[in-house]
Design brief:
Blueprint (H helix, E strand, L loop, with lengths): L18 E2 L11 H16 L4 H5 L2 H12 L7 E4 L2 H9 L10 E5 L4 H8 L7 E5 L9 H7 L4 E7 L11 H11 L2 E5 L11 H4 L3 E5 L11 E5 L1 H4 L39 H17 L1 H21 L3 E2 L12 E4 L3 H10 L2 E2 L1 E3 L3 E4 L7 H21 L1
Parallel strand pairs: 1-11, 3-4, 3-5, 5-6, 6-7
Antiparallel strand pairs: 2-8, 7-8, 9-10, 10-13, 12-13
Bound molecules: pyridoxal-5'-phosphate (PLP).
Pyridoxal-5'-phosphate (PLP) binds next to helix 4.
Length: about 375
């Protein structure tokens, strides 16, 4: 197959000596990160404290815009944070849970950190309603929609599920929320960079995720999109001097909020992580998420076919339209098999109730999928011969 995207392989050093199928967990590091971090260190070393006014202070907003472009967010609508859990905390701090509208609706297929956060808001009055999956792969959309009612405040749901890669029906969820006056917080950690996201077309209220997986941006940077009309009026209680109109006035007393995106930030920004995120964002933007999606659908189909041919159970939707970039394969003895794969430099991971997760990205060649599956067969063969 003539795969044009393979020319990007040279930009990712780890591809030289591993079969890297783990972009659902940590995207490969672009070579450009070496330079980005060297420039950061040089600036710190030579410009010292002057670096703040020479770019560091405004960097969080610039990187927010770069991420925003990938999801068709208007300029200045995306703030950056440490992680998704922090993004949820910023959103929660904009609301009051003491009134009638205090219900939080989500599925049990959400990422656990997000659930831990919302469960912990119960003492403040949040009423958490968790909708259970029937099959451990999909979300029962009808039941989720039914649960979103006039008392619902927020609906924090994953766009693509981390366990099964099922794509939630974000459009239906947002529509229902609009009907009853609830707000959707769409977690696009497992979609943006591999599945197209358009926050304006969806008319979603909030959207958050991190850059370390499909955006190849490394740990330490998460993004939070807030629809501009909400961004203009919400007042986060989790705040700090970055959110002040004039932080360097060091005013005492209550905050006078800046405009978005800084309105939703709080303390000193994570400058090295922001710098490290940029080379990956640049590559993803150059390629375009649509092209990545096209390739991903083909490669995940290939993986599913290879798994099915071997009689392995697939815990991922078979319909490519309903599946993100990961294939979860419930291979016999999957946890042990995963450990053996890692020893052989086939980088994948294992999750309970999912199996081995394999996630090809734009930089993977088809032969790497075949190699990973052949390695699994070899491991299973070896373990059989030991019995
Ligand atoms: C859908 C989803 N949300 C959130 C997270 C992580 O949350 P945080 O950034 O708070 O660590 C992950 C995985 O790491 C995820 O897959």
């Amino acid at each position: 197959m003539n795969d044009e995207l393979l020319r990007y392989r040279a930009e990712f050093p780890i591809l030289e000596n591993t079969t890297y199928l783990i972009s659902n967990s940590l995207g490969a590091m672009p070579r450009g990160v070496y330079d980005a971090l060297k420039t950061y260190a040089d600036r710190w070393a030579t410009r010292g404290v002057r670096a703040w006014e020479e770019g560091w202070w405004t960097l969080a907003g610039e990187v927010g815009n770069e991420i925003g472009e990938l999801m068709n967010a208007p300029k200045a609508s995306v703030s950056t944070h440490l992680n998704v859990t922090t993004c949820q905390a910023v959103i929660a701090s904009c609301f009051d849970f003491s009134g009638k509208r205090s219900k939080i609706v989500y599925s049990d297929m959400n990422f656990p950190s997000v659930m831990y956060f919302w469960e912990a808001q119960r003492p403040l009055g949040a009423r958490v309603h968790m909708v259970a999956s029937d099959d451990g792969v999909t979300v029962p959309t009808e039941r989720l929609l039914e649960a979103i009612d006039e008392t619902t405040l927020l609906v924090p749901v994953s766009h693509v599920l981390f366990r099964s890669s099922y794509i939630n029906d974000a459009r239906a969820i947002v529509e229902k929320a609009h009907k009853v006056g609830a707000h959707v917080v769409l977690d696009t950690f497992q979609s943006l960079g591999s599945v197209p996201v358009d926050v304006q077309a969806l008319n979603v209220h909030f959207c958050c995720g991190g850059v370390l997986k499909w955006l190849c941006g490394g740990p330490g940077v998460a993004y939070l999109y807030i629809r501009p009309d909400l961004g203009a009026k919400l007042q986060p209680k989790f705040t700090g001097w970055s959110a002040h109109q004039d932080p360097f006035a060091f005013d005492i007393g209550p905050i006078h909020y800046a405009d978005p995106p800084f309105r939703f930030m709080n303390g000193t920004p994570n400058v090295p992580a922001l710098e490290a995120a940029r080379p990956g964002l640049k590559i993803i933007s150059e390629i375009g998420v649509e092209r990545i999606r096209e390739k991903s659908a083909k490669q995940t189909s290939r993986l599913i076919q290879l798994a099915k041919e071997r009689g392995w159970r697939v815990n991922t939707p078979l319909d490519p339209k309903k599946r993100g970039g990961t294939v979860s394969i419930d291979i016999p003895h999957s946890h042990e098999v995963c450990r053996e794969l890692l020893k052989r430099n086939v980088l994948v991971d294992w999750r309970p109730r999912a199996g081995v997760r394999m996630s090809p990205h734009f930089y993977n060649a088809d032969c790497e999928l075949d190699r990973a599956v052949a390695a699994v067969e070899e491991i299973l063969g070896e373990s059989r011969s030991h019995v």
